[in-house]
């Protein structure tokens, strides 16, 4: 995933008719994009640190947890200037894909194999997690009280109650809880893949107007430098 800021020759007359970027030699054009790239990189890192989009709106918060979204993504973000454009990108392809999904709000397709790669093979004999306990209770899970109804239409049947999350975590195993959750949800055959929605969080670069303003400023600086 990358972002390229370039000077489009089709709109040159409209944007900077009097600047003449195209008349500059290649070394000067590259210097213009290099200096512009520094500004775009700083803006992108500031957006990530402040958890804001290029338009100044706060990121939609993560569904689970309270940590920052895309934490540390700015550290590895780089800019690569050429005489024709400057590109913001991550050298690592996995990080670049993550940035792309959040920049444009592209849902992530998850599989069991991916889950294992990210989180490791689950220890099904470990105690049930808090998340599982919550899911069990939401699915209507109950346990026997050890007592029976003494009268009525349910006479002789076991009384049941809703356990606490703590009881589930202390008395059930991860694998057991997972199986019961799937049974209660009627999903004993879970899907092989599923989508995880990713909200759009455009943080890379600047708005079109701000980016053009930076480029205009750097072009003028380069012209003045060459005129000395």
Tell me about this structure.
With 228 residues, the protein is an alpha+beta fold. It has 8 helices and 7 strands. A 3-stranded antiparallel sheet has the order 1-3-2, covered by helices on one side. It has a two-stranded antiparallel ribbon with strand order 4-7. The protein has a two-stranded antiparallel ribbon with strand order 5-6. Helix 2 (26-50) packs antiparallel against helix 8. The protein is rod-shaped, with a radius of gyration of 28 Å. The two termini are 39 Å apart. The protein has helices spanning 12-16, 26-50, 93-104, 112-119, 130-138, 165-171, 174-184, 208-227, and strands at residues 2-6, 78-81, 85-89, 108-111, 143-148, 158-161, 193-196. It has 2 domains: 2-107 and 199-227, no CATH class; 113-196, no CATH class.
- Indicate the radius of gyration in whole angstroms: 28 Å
User: CA-to-CA gap between the ends?
Assistant: 39 Å
Q: Beta-sheet strand percentage?
A: 5-15%
Major pleated sheet:
3 strands, antiparallel
The strand order across the widest sheet is: 1-3-2
Q: What overall form do the CA principal axes indicate? A: rod-shaped
Number of helices: 8
Count of domains: 2
Count of DSSP strands: 7
Helix share of residues?
A: 40-55%
């Amino acid at each position: 995933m990358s972002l390229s800021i370039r000077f489009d020759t089709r709109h040159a007359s409209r944007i900077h008719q009097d600047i003449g970027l195209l008349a500059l030699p290649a070394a000067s054009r590259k210097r213009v994009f290099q200096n512009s790239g520094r500004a775009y990189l700083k803006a992108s890192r500031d957006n990530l640190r402040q958890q804001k989009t290029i338009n100044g709106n706060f990121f939609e918060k993560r569904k689970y947890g309270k940590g920052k979204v895309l934490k540390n993504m700015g550290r590895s973000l780089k800019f690569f200037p050429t005489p024709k454009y400057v590109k913001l990108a991550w050298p690592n392809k996995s990080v670049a894909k993550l940035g792309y999904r959040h920049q444009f709000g592209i849902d992530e397709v998850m599989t069991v194999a991916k889950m294992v790669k990210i989180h490791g093979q689950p220890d099904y004999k470990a105690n049930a997690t808090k998340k599982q306990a919550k899911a069990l209770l939401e699915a209507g899970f109950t346990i026997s009280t050890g007592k029976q109804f003494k009268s009525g239409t349910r006479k002789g049947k076991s009384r049941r109650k809703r356990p606490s999350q703590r009881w589930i975590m202390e008395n059930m195993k991860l694998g057991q809880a997972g199986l019961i959750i799937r049974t209660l949800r009627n999903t004993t055959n879970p899907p092989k893949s599923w989508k995880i929605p990713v909200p759009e969080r455009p943080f890379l670069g600047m708005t079109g107007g701000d980016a053009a303003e930076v480029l205009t400023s750097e072009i003028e600086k380069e012209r003045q430098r060459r005129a000395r």
